[in-house]
Amino acid sequence: MTRSRKPLGLLAVIILTAIPASAQVCPLSDEDSVQRIVSCKPGVALADCRTLAQSAGCAVVRELESINAIVIIVPKSRAGLQEGRLKSLKEVDRVDPDERINWLKAVEPALNDFRLPAPAAIVRFQKAAAPEPAADDPEQPWGIKRVKAAAAWSRTQGQGIKVAIIDTGVDATHPDLSAAVAGGFNAVDPANPGDFADDQGHGTHVAGTIAAARDGQGVVGVAPKTRLYAVKVLDRFGNGSFSEIIAGIEWAVKNKMQIANMSLGADEGSEPLLRAVKAAYGAGLVIVAAAGNASGGPVSFPGAYPETIAVSASDKADALAPYSSVGDAVGFIAPGSSVLSCAPGGKFVEHSGTSMAAPHVSGLAALAISLGARGPEGVRAALARAASPLPGLSPPQQGAGMIDAGRLNR
């Protein structure tokens, strides 16, 4: 049978393997297909789960080992029928949509403002003599000073701690980040898993707040000697599927990351994402997540899950940033407004959002681990002991409060 070809820009890469003759005709365009996450019950081998899922789909996209699930492509016109057939199988636990959404809208006040900076907005890389940590240290952005990161640097700068930045990638050539970035993974483009370059800018900004070099130039991060791993789960528009986010979490666990910063969020969660977060928590991964920018609305996901540490945002006056989400899930508050950090191309730019607040806490978590805190609950407890509530803010707005690095492990 001859099939007419669609324009190459619309083609999805589909590998037909072991699909019975009775299976549906597979679409070639993204518009005609959807993805589903097929989760099998405990005790069902992942290989067997793959065979069952594949029989109902056009192709297997990826395996999600931590949740015993397979991601498949299904024709949109037959998705409901195939879901019903899969759910009827005793080996299958559930079938969930693998939606592709924008994960930065919920954590940025204005996503359209978060692009690679225009020249007028850039603070360019400048050489300067390396100063001693002090209140007037020009290398320290205001947020780094506010959490008193330098107060811990005589004891630790996060040496040897491994932090995954689950985001848009990181510019590993940036002068303030080149020494810190030790590797990474691309979940968005399976054909190029080692290409974690940042084509959006968000992940590079997050990386700078965590671990920009303390070298007397540019900016410095909270824990400047941590090892960063760029886990690219979002494309240049901030879009990603649930399965790509889960794949990023799985990579962090398999590669023995100690902390994962997730400055991203969705208005709604999903059972597969929750299961992945629970599995990572059980494996000892500390997940720090942006609370979201719902302007007083609820915390976004995965920050809303109790296994994560959700971070709300403050401004320079120690007030709750007006865009910040709030709720009982908030663990801490951190600087989030007008935060200066790295941008691709060796540049620096200010951005605001709970995305900017979360990496302050990830850096503090790295300091806490290097000072002896162990496991997600041990790290949360160490951070809570070092935190103080901000006057005038309620627990749903700030959790345990603002963390003081000088009080870690005391």
Gist of the model:
It is built from nine helices and 18 strands. The chain is of the alpha/beta class and 410 residues long. α4 packs parallel to α7 (354-370), α5 runs parallel beside α6 (271-282) and α7 crosses α8 (375-385).
Description:
The strands form five sheets. A seven-stranded parallel β-sheet has the order 8-9-7-11-12-13-14, sandwiched between helices. The chain has a four-stranded antiparallel β-sheet with strand order 2-3-1-4, sandwiched between helices. Helix content is 22%, strand content 21%. It has two domains: 8-98, 2-Layer Sandwich (Alpha-Beta Plaits), CATH 3.30.70; 111-407, Peptidase S8/S53 domain (Rossmann fold), CATH 3.40.50.200. It is an alpha/beta fold and 410 residues long.
